[in-house]
Write a structure and sequence with these properties.
- It comes from Microbacterium kribbense.
- This is Glycine cleavage system regulatory protein.
- The protein is of the alpha+beta class and about 170 residues long.
- It has 4 helices and 8 strands, in the order E-H-E-E-H-E-E-H-E-E-H-E.
- The protein folds into 2 domains: about 80 residues, ACT domain (Alpha-Beta Plaits); about 80 residues, ACT domain (Alpha-Beta Plaits), CATH 3.30.70.
- The protein starts with a strand and ends with a strand.
Length: about 170
């Protein structure tokens, strides 16, 4: 069996996921996991599909036929999914939005040798100040030898500008 990681982008409209699911099912693929969202009128996402080795190329070709209505790029990944390893660190960030904030947060995460498994973010109007608030939830994983304390320290140094709620699992 093979795994395909599909990146999906197109103008948002009804039926996008159904169209993609039809193509995957027609070629014998199994839709394993996905993260899909509408962002500023565009539909974007990532999908993990398991498929028999001899059907992988046919599925990839069928997905390219969707071009024009939906841009789908398959990544021919490893033949099996590896279980996540290492200490998990989950934290939320909340603060005034500004350019470079994601760079600063991810720099702090990388400083401790952590890899990001998931990052979800949004901006919203600040209730009383009239500005914009930035909120993110990050789940990261510490590889062997990673310095989680260094990452926590780097995040706490940002605390003058942002609030960080940190949970180490």
């Amino acid at each position: 069996m093979a795994y395909l990681v599909l990146t999906v982008v197109g103008d948002d409209r009804a039926g996008i996921v159904q169209t993609l699911a039809e193509v995957v099912a027609r070629h014998g693929g199994n839709w394993e996991r996905s993260e899909l969202a509408e962002l500023a009128g565009a539909f974007a996402g990532i999908v993990l599909v398991e498929i028999a080795d001899d059907k992988r190329d046919g599925l990839a070709e069928a997905l390219s036929d969707l071009e024009g209505t939906l841009h789908v790029t398959p990544y021919h990944g490893p033949t099996q999914t590896a279980p996540a390893q290492g200490e998990e660190v989950t934290f939320t960030v909340l603060g005034n939005d500004r350019p470079g904030l994601v760079r600063d947060v991810t720099r702090a995460v990388a400083a401790g040798g952590l890899t990001i498994d998931r990052l979800t973010s949004r901006t919203a109007p600040a209730p009383m100040s009239g500005g914009e608030l930035f909120e993110a939830t990050v789940t990261a994983r510490a590889a062997a030898g990673a310095d989680v304390a260094a990452a926590v320290d780097a995040l706490e140094k940002l605390a003058g500008e942002i609030q960080v709620d940190l949970t180490v699992a």
